[in-house]
Amino acid sequence: MSNLIQRFHATKFLTSANQLNQLPETDGHEVAFAGRSNAGKSSALNALTSQSTLARTSKTPGRTQLINYFEVDPKNYLVDLPGYGYAKVPERIRAHWQSVIQGYFETRKNLTGLVMMMDVRHPMTVLDEQMLRWCESQDLRVHILLTKADKLKRGPAKTSLFKVQEALKEFAMPATVQLFSATDHTIGLQEALKVLNEWLPCE
Predict the structure, then answer these.
(1) Distance of CA 119 to the CA centre of its chain
(2) Would the pTM of this model clear 0.70, i.e. be above it?
(3) In what order do the strands lie in the sheet with 12-17?
(4) What is the dihedral sign for C-alpha 7, 8, 11, 15?
(5) Which residues are within 8 A (CB) of 129 and not within 5 positions of it... i.e. 6 or more apart?
């Protein structure tokens, strides 16, 4: 087991929050995870931590309804935000999630970056662009995982990657993108872990 994998394998669940006033008071660093409800966010979190059940996965999109905090090590956290864009969620809940997520970005002073999940077959949706605009307004750096890259052949996957790289040029904040698979760990796992390791420095 590599040092990077070993570090993030120690990640453990800390707490959940449904309101901004329930967020834990921390003085370290946190990296948030966001994405459409069917983009494979929970699966990506589990793959990055080499754990099968850290983040709850479901065949029903939209299961993550809380802000979930995971502790990597003292003063370093991964934050799983509610998935967005799931049509079957009642409007009042969608509005609540949007308010909480926007408030989260505006108030968390120790947020060092956002890891954003997009399905490699359907990247840069309207809601994805809205999320990126929020990050731009906060000058928050973004690293995009084009998930489910194992579902495409190498050529189409590279084409999708290039299109997203071009689209990101329209945004002012620092933004990078890579191919990623939660099931085939040869596709982007080490690359993503290196970004997390940089954003969450060891004390």
Answers:
(1) 12
(2) yes
(3) 12-17, 67-73, 76-80, 29-35, 111-119, 142-147, 175-179
(4) positive
(5) none
DSSP element (H, E) containing 13: strand 12-17
Residue matched to tokens 């040029």: 169
Q: Which two tokens stand for residue 192?
A: 């993503």
Q: Where are the beta strands (DSSP E) in 24-180?
A: 29-35, 67-73, 76-80, 111-119, 142-147, 175-179
Specify whether the CB–CB gap between 10 and 94 falls below 8 A: no
The conformation of residue 188, written as its DSSP 8-state character, comes to: T
pLDDT in tens, 137-177: 999 999 999 999 999 999 999 999 999 999 999 999 999 99
Burial 58-76 (b: 16+ CB within 10 A, else e): eeebbebebbbbbbbeebb
